[in-house]
Amino acid sequence: MPADKIVLFVDDDPTTRKIYETQATRLGVRAIMTSNPTEAVAVLKHQLPHIIVTDLMMPEYDGVELIRAIRENPRTRDIPVIVLTYGGNLERVDTAGHVGANEIHDKSSCPPDKLFARIAALTAQK
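^ that's the sequence the OP posted. Answer follows.
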């Protein structure tokens, strides 16, 4: 994956963020790490990443609402979004697809190397 690509990660779990940040650094990818959708929306006002990877289930403001906000904004609507979740609420998973997630993966079956391969594939399409 080219080092000029910027990936915005949104996850409330600090361990998960650290794993993705470590993998991004190892691959020479610029990663912006946020712990919630509110921070992500603030970042998007100043920085347009090539792709967004978000957790689905987060307190207060979840991944579905973040995807809606991304798709409603003309500046961000075309940014690919990958959703990662631990199964959980199948209705929310379905809704994430309907509101515009490009891909949805279960965290337990999507290790960092697979995730970054999907990131590379989606950003190559742009």
